[in-house]
Amino acid sequence: MSKRISIYLLAAALAAVTLAAASSIAAASPAAPGKSPLIIAMKDPGCHWFYTGGGPNARKYAVKVVRKGPVTLLNLDEAPMIIRGPGGKKIQPVGEKLTLKTKGTYHLTMVKQAPDDNHLVLVVN
Fold it and tell me: Highest mean pLDDT: which of 14-23, 36-45, 63-72?
């Protein structure tokens, strides 16, 4: 039982650290839209979101984002993401970047996602 609690605490701490690092990276580098990675972040309610910027007191999250391509995704969620779009199906591991070059609509869900979690949509122009 204590081993299971330790694993949950470790996972929660890792999620908090990666989200803090992602927000400091996003806040510290005001690159042109579409040039910095689009971050997939863990946040309740809804489980996963696109992190679209903002400072520590005004973070902005969205479930649908429109960007000019190519778009690089950075997965900072708690599990791999399944990305379905014009290029077929791709699996993006946690902590990895993936660049989408083909224009179109992409649907993102987490591996073994609960039915009430957010379904993310990315439109690449």
Answer: 63-72
Decide if 2 contacts 38 (C-beta within 8 A): no
What is the phi/psi pair of residue 75, to 5°?
-90, 105
Q: What residue has token string 């400091």?
A: 24
Beta strands in 1-125 (DSSP E): 38-43, 47-53, 60-62, 64-67, 71-76, 81-85, 88-92, 97-100, 104-110, 120-124
Report residue 42 CA to chain centroid gap.
7
Residue type, 77: D
Phi and psi based region of residue 104 (left: phi greater than 0; alpha: psi -120 to 50; beta: remaining): left
Q: What is the mean pLDDT of residues 65-91?
A: 94
- The answer, yes or no, to whether residue 92 has pLDDT greater than 90, is yes
CA 81 to each of CA 56, 91, 118: distance values in angstroms, whole numbers, following the listed order:
25, 6, 12
Distance CA 113, CA 111 (A): 5
Complete edge-to-edge strand list for the sheet that includes strand 60-62: 60-62, 47-53, 38-43, 71-76, 97-100
